[in-house]
Structure formats: C-alpha cells, structure tokens
Amino acid sequence: PVIRSYFQSIDYGAISFKDVTLKFNISQFPEEISKVCAAGNLTVLVVVQSAPASIKIRDVIRSTWANRSVVASLQNESAKVVFLIGNGDVLSKEQQKEMDSHRDIISVVTEDNYRNLIFKSALTLHISQVRCPTAFLLKVDEDVVLNIDRFMSGIEHTFFGESSAIYCKTWKGAKPSRDTKKAWFVSEYQFRGRTFPEYCAGPSYVLTSSAVTSLLNSLHNFNLMTVEDVFMTGIVAQGAGVKRISMKSRFKSNYTVKNYKKSDCPGE
Question: Which spans of this chain does the record mark as coiled coil (predicted)?
Fold first, then answer.
C-alpha cells in the first residue's frame, strides 16, 4: 500500500531476548498520534492489541468506550487510544482504508498470531518508551471494555507513577503446561520452575513509565517464552524488580455476556 504523508517515516529496530533477537519494522505510525504524544498533556497511552482483520471490533471500540465525542479524557488529550496490529506489509484495501480514515492504527511488519503476542507486547513497551513516553501505559486486548474517564478520575490516588509497578488482576501459584499440544506449552528450556511467579492477567494491565523501562532493559536476560502474560508480567517483571499490584475490583473478568437486539434499547 501507498504510505501517505500523514504517516511518519518507517521505524526499524530490534528487541533482544537471551536466545533470540526479533527485528521489527513499524511500517505506519500516524502523525496524529505523534502530535498528541508531543503536546505534553498526555498522562495515559492506551494501546489496544488488535488482529488485522478485526475492523468491525475496532469500529465498535471507536463508537463506544473510545468515542472521543463522549469521553472527556480523550477530548482534553490526557488519554489517547491507539491500535497495534501486525501484518503491516500485507494490509488489505479495506484495512488501508480504515487506517487512512481514522489514523489511530500503528502497524508493524510481523506475522500476527498467538505465538507473536509476546512480540507485540514488547513492541508496545518500545512504542511507549521511544515514541510516546507517558506516566502510564495501559495495555488492553481488543475484547476488553474500558471506562477511560473513571480510570482517569482515580489515577492520582490509585496509581503511583514514581514507582516501578504493574497494576492488574494477579494470578498466583499457576503451573507451566508441559503438554506440547497446548497453545500455552512451556518447555523446561524456557522455564524450569514448578510454579510461575505471580503475574498479571493478560487482557489488561497498567504499567508505570519506570516499569516500562525496567522490563525493556531486562528482556535480554530471559529466553523467549510465548505465554505473554506469564513471561512479561511474571518472569521478566520479577527479574527486573517490578512490583505486581493486585486490583481485582478494577480489572474484572467475570462478566456475563448478553446479546441485545436494537429493539431492547430505550427509544428504539
């Protein structure tokens, strides 16, 4: 696809783990994102890790919890929501049209699949540190619902930016799966222990800027493991001295999914 003028120059680089170096290419990074990052008012960067084909899901997010017309924190640019997708070198015409229209998508040239989730998370840290430094980084999956204004209203007395910490729903005592048929298989080469360190549930978590730096600076000490949340927020975080602070009441995952018809809504 043609890279238009409102996309910044391509960013090449590499992220090194103990056993492998992953080269990356940020193929599209809208100027609109850079301008907000450079303005100096941004407190939280929200990175939604999304699949390239999830156009309808991204549209739903834009029209609901990331709707600038109703979310005050997006209007005053104290918070910014961006999408991170892979397959940046083979985008469809529909995907390119979406990027041209909304200019809120960062695309990277890498295969987008489950095993590369850890790569996208490492790139999320890189973008936060190098391209858009903020006091807090909020990583969310595309199936997460976030109340941005509520989050921002309690940020000063709930999250402490000067510490090296991750705020999340934590898991303790989890054991590695040694079943090679499982997607979350972990070999003894990757992790030898009987139980994982305390780690954050993967769908969403908040990192302080100090935690972002500590994690990035420590990746080279660990063999790459594809179970993203365990690896990044558990193994690497523990080795880097990053605290995991449990906030189960704020990071919930026990909601019941209900399907509503348009006629169920008032006024319809």
Answer: none
